[in-house]
Amino acid sequence: MDSEPASPAYLKIIACEIALREICHVVSRTPNVVDLEFLAQGLHDTPAAGCAELQRRIEAVPDGKYAAILVGYGLCSSILNGLRAGPTPLILPRAHDCITFFLGSKERYQQCFSERPGTYYYTSGWLECRKRRGDTVEAGFGGFMPAGTAAARQRDFDVWAKKYGEEQARYLMDVMAGWASHYTHGVLIDFDFTKPLQLESQVRQVCEERGWQFEALPGDLRLLERWVNGPWTDSEFLVVPPGRQVAPSGDDRIITLAPRGAGFEVERRGDPPA
Asked: How many whole angstroms separate alpha carbon 7 and alpha carbon 35?
């Protein structure tokens, strides 16, 4: 069933910092009143811990304050698996990962990934999140794979060796090189409001170092706009009623409501392991 907030609605957004600029741009133009909370990009690197932190943030939201909590995450390595709504319903885009947010729909996402296999996608958030954590852009240069030239690889190794030790740095280089071998293209998803950031020159440098073909792709904010403004159609969004949990659907819907009594448990941070 489709759902639409009363206008203007008082909403809460809890989202990954990867989409900070794009979400802020959409929120600046909405008639709704929105409180924003962004979480560190690395949460979905460890999905169980990431889901627990996301659950903690949801449970910290005061009862009855907002019409809905908008959760700015895709399925992203199963970070949403078992997430539970408290007294306030959750609104989640049906998205495999955040790239869907920047392409405008899960259908365009699927089309781009089918037409451009071996493509690594860049956005302002992917290029900036390392700076936000205090890392240098040069170390991995906005992606999480080593660059292609010998000098760039040595640069990455030196940074990782200083941070993690030489043995761990060598392991990371081997793993990242394995991932990088599957990519042939670097695509920048760009918007008019991000052009002053000169992202294209940064991504072109990445592609040159790695021997990839560069391409710029116009972004599309319509999915994020509908997420913030409504209506929340069932084809694009999952509305999670109070007390219900999220589960992967295993089909084109991407996410669905877990059956009642399914037994999902989200480990709270600080809880002893079972």
From this structure: 15
